[in-house]
Batch of 3 targets.
Target 1
Amino acid sequence: MYILGINAYHGDAAAALIKDGRIVAAAEEERFNRVKHCAGFPAEAVRYCLRAAGTGIEHVAHIGISRDPSAHLHKKILFAATRAARQIGTSRQPAEGSKQAAVATIDSDVEGNGNGNGNKNGPGLFRQVKDRLNNAAKVRDLKEELARVLGVPAKSIGAQFHNIEHHRAHLASSFYVSPFQRAALLSIDGFGDFISTMWAVGEGNSINVLDQVEFPHSTGIVYTATTQFLGFPHYGDEGKVMGLAPYGKPRYMDEFREIIRTEANGQFRLNLDYFRHHAEGVDMTWDQGSPVIGRIFSDEFVKTFGPAREKGATLTSREEDIAASLQQRLEEVGFHVLDHLHDATGLTDLGLSGGVAYNSVMNGKILLNTPFRRVYVQPAAGDSGTALGVCYEINNGILKRQRGEIMLGAYTGPEFGDSVIRAELQQSNLAFESFSDEEITKRAAQDIADGLVVGWFQGRMEFGPRALGNRSIVVDPRRADMKQILNDRIKKREPFRPFAPSILEEHTAEYFEQSHPAPTMLMVYQVREERRDQIPAVTHVDGSGRLQTVSREVNPRYYQLISDFKELTGVPVVLNTSFNENEPVVCTPRHAIDCFLKTRMDVLYLGNFSVRRKTE
Ligand SMILES: [Fe+2]
């Protein structure tokens, strides 16, 4: 029985397909249409999932989307009415005449999907109601949209349709594919379906929600607002601030403890004076392009910290210190919620999801700062992963079918056989060599040890933001200059951002102060002091590393590559960065070849073939 899950009409649109409880395919739309964090409808991703299964939409029994316009509806209406009354009272119209005037927030909407189709000039309440109706209609019209993009008559789709509340989809994505039969679950996020944070107990085939934090209070909003204030305006820039934080000192803790306050029972609240999302609304676009989010922080930020940094301006110690304080405050609030979740459940296994679960620095400290002993982070913890969560909420939560899938890696995307790769290479008029399975990893390991920049394109593409050894650029972590080389020649990233290590799982404890597996690169641990000089290219300024632990079981070819590198050098670690320049991670051999040709990568390994840059 096939179940199709969809994340549509907000960032990181994606589709996932499972068959009899097993993952067949899952991928983000951005990988196909090459628009970063693409919102809108994941038409290409749906087509890919069906292709991977060798089936058609008429054979899918259940289809779900990770939002439920009717969820928490009384709260949404109450909020809209209260705000409308306030607006009428002050004659203040939000974002009047702006390109996109819907009030919406990170990660999902509040009351509309903000796709720019709303009444641009109408009074606030009218527009809000209209947006909500548009949005509800859009979700209702899922069947028509699917039929349209797949070019089939709507009546050929016999599936039962489901709206799965946003956070239930997140929670399901971190539980039903985890190794746990019983676990505490936390979805920590920007917003989705009017909720920012939800916690629960998962047991067998059910998820029992314990509590939630409602709009407008959100850790994700604090992080995004501060990220904007620090001059990083793009959707997904929060990771840059996380990378900047270790350069600073947390000297603004009083200020951030005022901006976001913790309360009893795991709750927290924002000081709303610092924000615009609840009162004035924030312009956003959720149409087919990259999401664009208007300014969330209010002038109170400026009063407290001074002028906002302009994008591209020199970074000073003020920005570093603000980033450090923000990061530390996020951790405090996160552990506050987790401590409560442990107290409420007595459990020590944790399933983690939501956009804030991409904060790998916080994740890496959970075992040190809370009673939790094992953590499963959904590899696509952000909104793309809700597509998968939808599948499993239907499979287990609704249909109560038997569990059986444990998602240890994230290799659920397209793969390409050697005949396809060979044809692409021939079409590109590139001279290439081919190698046996044993030779290919040895050759690549030698190139890495020789200091070359190696493109490594193998097997199925990863789901979620991290390249995990199938769509990766791999270099020698022993060379301190590798960071600079990668930035000069390919990545062009801000110099303060770290690069990440992949390590053979069994050697983790030799190099890091913690050894809990991190197979999807969502944990940051401290590199052991005595090892830092050995792997300087992957050791951040504070001695940390966002590691990927690699096992033979989860990724045999990548494991072999690192083993071969260890044979040559004695070091069981490589530097792994995503295979892309400044675009979504490559998906096809064509994308990989294009990236190879337009950057100064030295060697490209595609399946069992290699292409070497000619020395000029
Ligand atoms: Fe979300």
Note: The radius of gyration is 24 Å.
Target 2
Amino acid sequence: MRAYLPSYELISAAQLQEALGVLANEPGVWRPFAGGTDLMVLLEAGKLPHKKYLNIWNLPELRGVEVTASQVTLGALTTYTEVQQEKVLQAEFPMLCQAASETGGLAIQNRGTLGGNIVNASPAADSPPALLAYDAELELVSLAGARWVPYHGFHIGYKQMGIKPDELLTRIRLPRSSEKLQHYYRKVGTRKAQAISKVCFAGTAQVRAGKIDDLRIALGSIAPVPLRCVQTEDALRGSELNKTSIDRAKAVLANEIVPIDDIRSTRNYRQQVSLNLLEDFLQHLSA
Ligand SMILES: Cc1cc2nc3c(=O)[nH]c(=O)nc-3n(C[C@H](O)[C@H](O)[C@H](O)COP(=O)(O)OP(=O)(O)OC[C@H]3O[C@@H](n4cnc5c(N)ncnc54)[C@H](O)[C@@H]3O)c2cc1C
């Protein structure tokens, strides 16, 4: 049942300082409203308990893409459409572009933002595995100042994360690599479009002199948070690619992930598909 609209408040800020002032004056009272693609679903379903929202869609400080020699920095309001259009992302961060192209349909891609995807903190979200595999960092800003934190470790439990009520996620930073990395991204869902992931896999690595290097692996929908699989990475780093190392990595991954049964899939299916995707990723590397 749709929520009773007059019980909600939505105010707008035109500049970052103004928005931060609203959040600082009454911490926790006003919550950011970006593209609204997650929030509006809850509103329509009558399941949006929080009542007061601060529209941040018009903040210029949260927009744009900045490219330097060592990094690419995206405003938190960067939409999926903008991600797909950005040349440097297509060339160097293709998994993020693929995640964006497989998120929702065109309307969602025009309105949904990377920042919203991160702070909504769904374990099934599609950008987080790519952002984790690219070792992204987040800029969190309040009136007290700005701080950069690694994205790995930002999600600390189901829908819990290291952002304070008076902070906004303002920018997402991706380190550029001088190495020629290989990228492997797979979203497994019920359909090819408009489907929430059953399992989502993002892996990047380089093979040097027959050994795996610069390896990062992250999965979605297999734990309470989007998971960077550091134990599996450790098991593979420096190894030669062969059946023994692949089987060992699969055994480690099987213990590292904690899939659940829910309406979209079963624990067993998620477990098996995750292992299959790891094997496919590693076989792509060896090829
Ligand atoms: C039909 C449909 C299909 C979808 N398909 C997919 C899909 O395939 N894959 C997928 O991952 N997601 C999907 N989504 C979910 C959604 O589109 C994404 O999570 C989107 O990125 C959310 O961004 P937003 O700007 O709309 O967030 P909002 O709905 O505005 O906000 C989401 C949450 O993030 C907080 N927030 C937003 N921005 C900030 C910020 N800068 N700082 C601090 N807090 C912030 C808000 O307070 C809120 O709690 C789908 C949604 C719909 C309706």
Note: The chain has eleven helices and 14 strands.
Target 3
Amino acid sequence: MTHISTAPTPPASAAVSDGDLRMTLAAELADARRRTLWLVEPLSDEDLHRQHDPLMSPVLWDLGHIAAFEDLWLTRNLTGHVEFSEMPGLYNPFEHPRRVRGTLALPRLAEARETMDEIRARALARLDTADFRDGPRLLLAGYVYRMVLQHEYQHGETILQTLQLKRGDPYAPPQRRVLPSPAASYRPGEMVFFPGGPVELGTDDRSAAYDNERPRHRVDLAPFWIDVTPVTNGQFLEFVEAGGYRRRELWTEEGWRWLTEAGVSAPKHWAKRLGVWTTRTMDLIRPLEPLRPVCHVCYHEAQAYSTFAEKRLPTEAEWEAAASWDPAIGAKWMYPWGDEPWTPELANLDQTAFDTAPIGAYPRNVSPIGCYGMIGDVWEWTASDFCGYPGFEAFPYSEYSEAFFGPEYKVLRGGSWATRPGAVRSTFRNWDYPIRRQIFSGFRCARDA
Ligand SMILES: [Fe+2]
């Protein structure tokens, strides 16, 4: 069994020399690759090539795509400008929608790994001469390397979504990190007050943040209430048992249309066996635990629950303010707990637990206003459509986020247990269709003051 690392990403600082930054980036690239390969280690070649679900790529496609993306950005684009559309056809996500990727002529694992190694060697050779101060804009502060790192981290989470949907025998993780027991107790449904007023959202960081997180800007928020904890399994069970999935009045028109077509009556991966509700995460099936965050719900389910609870979903501005803004001193933090980089004691991130944690297991994962668990465990649906902030500028390619701006996508915040720490912060924005529930998604509610 290979070693699993939980090294956090140190923040880039102007005081770091180019040589030190090169070493850090090379170590992070190696760590990202170790993790990717560790996740897929238990899979047979057949499992790697199989399309386990129409929503997900064969895992082998993700591996090839990770390498092709690295080749595009860390070698080809650093010697002369290349458009994203010039990514090799087989691994170009826009040329082949996920549902058909199982029909592509994908290589065997050994061959894919050779390609990954060969591209990595060229990327590292180029890194040796990278000029992070006066080089092209892509290289300033090491940005393009962090972009490629985050891309690999994000595909790791995508692979975990696929593995949760695996056909045949369920995926057996190579090892599971033991989660801490709750050290603080919370009453699910309890709310905390945010006084409103001017807050700062987004960031001007150019070393790691994506274009859609920029620029940092000020908004005036009305006062609101927000749940102290994510909605739990226990709370969601009340909704299920009160006939929430049959009560038309709780759903929007679009939500009801989805529900009628999907014909579901509980979150994905919930099942009722002999009168007992169970949940499944990978190969672990157990009775529903009321004090873990509900996971695998779509936006419409989150919205219907919020109406049932006589609440609503927070906007993403409210979410970010509740997660990172200290209204007492007018300061913003990178994480709910401050600016200190993630460590395993701070929040349930980094994949290796393969599970959500009971509420209260991370007593330091509390924001300035007192919201628990805004980073880690489950992504949280917000009420907001995905769009650019005022003054948004696509960089370095519009296919990362700008191509998705619009009302079809809802924003999710905060990362899940399956998110690597280098791929989440209080300004990080994720987005997906409001009908998606194969993702590790939950939510918390808000209410007008
Ligand atoms: Fe990608």
Note: The longest helix spans residues 18-40.
